[in-house]
Design a protein that fits this description.
By secondary structure, the chain is an alpha/beta fold. The protein has a single domain, classed as 3-Layer(aba) Sandwich (Rossmann fold). It is about 30% helix and about 15% strand. It contains seven helices and ten strands. Helix 3 packs parallel to helix 4 (about 140-155).
Length: about 270
């Protein structure tokens, strides 16, 4: 059993430890004692290894496990394209995920490549010189809904069970009709307030940017588990297990040659 996770910093964990995020809570709810692999490049809103982060990961995928490629600053275009690239890579190594859980990010964010070959995740928090690259509304939400449909059809065609998290919300967009093509029964969302607004109101966040705290991550995980029709692992049991077994949750980073596995997390 293999579970694939993608998203931005709200999934990666900021500043909550990666193995205490909703991804690992969901994973342990699906299969207790499953190995959780968090994969990332260097910190910041650029990505020197876009589409290459999981090369070589197949040798670590033994028994039941989960992979998270969530990274700070990532937009919905990168989340969509990267997810397809990585699942195709995993399929080539006979490691197709059984389940995919995707947290959608802010609709205005955008993936660009600069003239000096750097790949950056542009978002509203960048310097003014980059703001011209943003996907302004309603274009941002129009594209986001299109990414929904692309991944939804991709998962269905590959027989992969999936859940989307609409954490930051999106507007109607130019293509209002496209909403009728999205299966919202597979989407974790909130109707009156966006999830990020709700979490701020409930004080389930650690900062003004709406990054979930541990309570928030358990709430998100519970909602994902509801859609997957599984019982979430209990809070006390999860906290105990992550404390006792934290060394098995590996944090992978990519250097010029290959993987560096951080063997000691605490």
């Amino acid at each position: 059993m293999l579970v694939f996770f993608n998203g931005c910093s709200h999934t990666e964990g900021s500043p909550v430890a990666f193995y205490k995020t909703w991804s690992n809570i969901v994973l342990q709810s699906i299969k207790e004692d499953a190995n959780f692999h968090h994969i990332h490049g260097k910190t910041g809103w650029d990505d020197e290894f876009l589409f290459r982060h999981i090369i070589g990961i197949e040798k670590y995928l033994k028994n039941d496990c989960g992979i998270s490629v969530a990274k700070a600053g990532k937009g919905n275009d990168a989340i969509c394209f990267e997810t397809i690239n990585y699942i195709e890579y995993l399929k080539q190594h006979n490691k197709k995920p059984d389940i995919a859980c995707i947290q959608w990010s802010g609709p205005s964010r955008k993936l660009i490549q600069t003239v000096d070959d750097k790949v950056n995740f542009i978002n509203p928090h960048w310097d003014k010189e980059y703001l011209q690259h943003l996907n302004f509304e309603p274009l941002g939400s129009s594209l986001t809904k299109t990414y929904y449909v692309i991944l939804e059809q991709y998962f269905k065609s590959n027989n992969i069970q999936y859940v989307f998290i609409d954490y930051m919300g999106h507007e109607i967009g130019f293509n209002e009709y496209l909403s009728d093509s999205i299966d919202y029964s597979k989407v974790v969302k909130n109707d009156e307030l966006t999830l990020i607004e709700l979490f701020k109101k409930k004080e389930w966040v650690v900062d003004e940017w709406g990054h979930p705290n541990e309570d928030g991550y358990h709430e998100l995980a519970s909602r994902v588990c509801d859609i997957l029709n599984i019982k979430p692992i209990g809070r006390k049991k999860f906290d105990y297990k992550t404390k006792e077994d934290s060394k098995k949750y590996t944090n992978h980073s990519l250097n010029k040659e290959f993987w560096i596995t951080v063997k000691k997390i605490l």
